[in-house]
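User: Hi! I'm working on a homework problem where we have to compare a predicted structure to a textbook description. Could you give me the structure for the chain below?
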Amino acid sequence: MAITKQKQAITRTKFLMGKIDYINASPVYYGLDHGLVPDWIEMIEGPPAVLNGMIKNNELEISPISSAFYAMNHKELLILPDLSISSHGEVLSVVLMTNYPIEELDGKTIILTQDSATSSALVRLIAIQKGIRPNFITGKLRTLQDIPDDIAVSKSGCNLTVDAAMIIGDAAMTQPWEKKFRYRIDLGKLWYETTGLPFVFALWVVRKESAISRYNDVKDALELFYESRNQGYTHIDKVIESGAKRLGLDNSYVRRYFELLHCNLDESKIKGLEYFFLSLYENSLLPEKVDITFLSYNR
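Assistant: Happy to help. Predicted structure tokens:
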């Protein structure tokens, strides 16, 4: 039996899994980063938007993706149970930097990061709910230098001043955005104050095709994620120390960050997810209602 299992492991087809290149998923990947990855799994790292595209193009079997991207492609994907990046309020790493209160952004220009479908959808939803119509553009927002002084508009022949920018990930916590903007609005906090629900920024998903054709691999990979996350929270001090060193931040700040973030997906978060998707649909930001469908799996 041992020889048979060893032979199966040797001949196992390569299994490609995505990994977010921000520190927010560090607890989930701790064990995988410290020896849990078997030879048959290959990890591909990138920002959410890149991973979104790769899972869509069948270049990954499993990946974390923007929750809004799941909503846009829910017929092709299954959610992996009990994995997310979410918050019950303040999140620190998803912020709208602005020179005006949200209610005064009507007709103003907001740059949305190209790195996340979820946060962009959330800002568009908030604008509709506030009854304002900003000018939305999308661009790279990793450093302060990515914010242009003004934007040329070819059709009108005029320039638009950048009035607000939506920033996500490590850049939200490390760049001096206050040098260009007056207000920092935490979108996790705003959502919670408005709805009383947690917000789910990212989900782990598997392609439906992969869930059928490679079910045993998917099941084994999911078990690895759970074990990896368990190790991450067991060694949370090391996760914090590593994150603080990587971003050049104080340990106390990164500790607070990981206290605010959640990497599970319980009933309250699923309710928040359902409400977000329904709100997007009812405000014409999604073309159809979303069926939230999980991989069938018994732990």
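For your comparison, note the following. The mean pLDDT is 92. The chain has two domains: 2-87+199-282, 94-195. Good luck with the assignment!
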